[in-house]
Amino acid sequence: MDSITQAALGAALAGTIAGKTLGRSALLTGALLGTLPDMDVVINYGTAVANFTQHRGFSHSLLVLTPLSFLIAWGLWRWQPRLSYRHWLLMVALILISHPLLDAFTTYGTQLWWPLATPPVALNTIFIIDPLYTLPLLAGCLAFLIRPPARRAMALGLALSTLYLAWSGVAQQLMTGRVEPALAQAGLKQPKLMVQPMPFTTLLWRATALTDDHRIEVVTGFFDRSQELTLEYFPRNPHLRQATAHLPEASRLEWFTRGFLEYNQEGSQITATDIRLGMPGTHPFTFIIADDSGGQIKAVPSSRLARPVFNPDALPLLWARLTGEVPVLCLATLTVPDPGPAC
Questions:
Q1: Domain residue limits, the chain
Q2: For the chain, first and last CA: distance in Å?
C-alpha cells in the first residue's frame, strides 16, 4: 500500500496499544515504524529490473521482521521504560508484520518468505491506494490527536479498515465467478487468470487471462446493468518470450510477475512490461532487457522506460464505467465504443 496508508496503520496500532501511556508520541512512533520496511527503496541494486524485483524483499520478509521486532522493542524500551517491554514488543511486532501482510493483498507482490525462493505473494484484492481502507484509520488518528487516547475511535477505525479488506477478498471471488464462465464460453479453459480491482475502488474489477498467444482483458463491476462481458484481446509476442527466456533478468521478471509480462521490440531494443500494474497504455513498469543486433539477442543491463503520462480525461470514463452508466470501456484506448459490446 501507499506510504500514507502504512503510516496511518502503524499509528493506529500504536495508539491503540500504547496511546494511554505514551500520549500523542505513540502516533509518531507508530507511523515511523509503519513506514520502516519501505526504506529499502533507497537501495540501488544495480539495474532497473533488480531494483524493481528486490523491492518488498528482505525488508518485508516475516523471517527478518519477526526477530528484528525483538531488537527494536528492546531499544525503544530502554529509551522509554514507561511502557513495558512486553507492550513495546507487541506494538513493534504488530506494526512491522502488518506492513508486509497488507502489501500482500495488493498486486505488486511481497516476498514474505525471503530469502527462500518462493514467488512473491500477491492476492490482488485491493488497489495500492484505496481511500475507503485508509480513511477510517486516519479518522481514528485524528480523534486521538484531538482528544487522546480515543481508544474506541482507534479501535473502530482498525475494525472498519479490516472489514473492508475482508470485503475486498469477497468481492474478488464474486467477480472471478462472473468472469470464468465467459472465458470458458470463449473457448478459454483454465487460462492463467488474475482478477484485481481497478484504481481506488473494489466496485469495478479488471480480469486478465493469459494464453500462449494472447492476453484477454475484461472489465466488470457490481453496478453493471448487463451480465454480458466484453473480452478484449491483445497479442503476446510469444517468440520474444522464448528468445529471451535464457536471460537472467527476463527470468527474474517472469518469476516476480508469475508470467504476466508483455514483450515488444522496437528497433533493436527488446522490452518487457509488467501488465499487472496500471492499465493497457499506462503500464508504469517497462524495462529494456535485451538488444537484437544482427539477429543475435544479447542481454543488456536493464533500464526502465519513462512512465506513460496518464490521461486525466480517463477519470470521468472510469467513474462512468464504475457506476454502470457506460456499459463497455475499451482498455486499449480508454474509450467508449460505438453501440454494441465489442471494442
A1: 3-123, 236-304
A2: 32
Q: Which amino acid is at 280?
A: P
To which H or E segment does residue 17 belong?
A: helix 3-22
CA proximity to 8, closest of 162, 143, 134, 166: 134
Burial (Cβ within 10 Å: 0-12, 13-18, ≥19) of residue 271: buried
User: Under a CB-based contact definition with an 8 Å cutoff, are residues 184 and 194 in contact?
Assistant: no
User: What is the distance of C-alpha 310 from the center of its chain?
Assistant: 18
Q: For residue range 286-315, what is the model confidence (pLDDT) as tens digits?
A: 999 999 987 789 999 999 999 888 778 788
Q: Do 161 and 212 meet the contact criterion of CB atoms below 8 Å apart?
A: no
Contact indicator for 245, 237 with CB cutoff of 8 Å:
no
> Residue holding cell 539495474?
47
Phi-psi region of 124 (alpha: psi -120 to 50; beta: other; left: phi over 0): left
**Residue recorded with cell 528468445:** 243
Nearest to 271 by CA among 41, 44, 49: 49
Residue 138's identity, in one-letter code, is: L
Residues forming beta bridges with residue 274, ordered by sequence position: 261
pLDDT tens, residue by residue, 120-129: 999 999 999 9
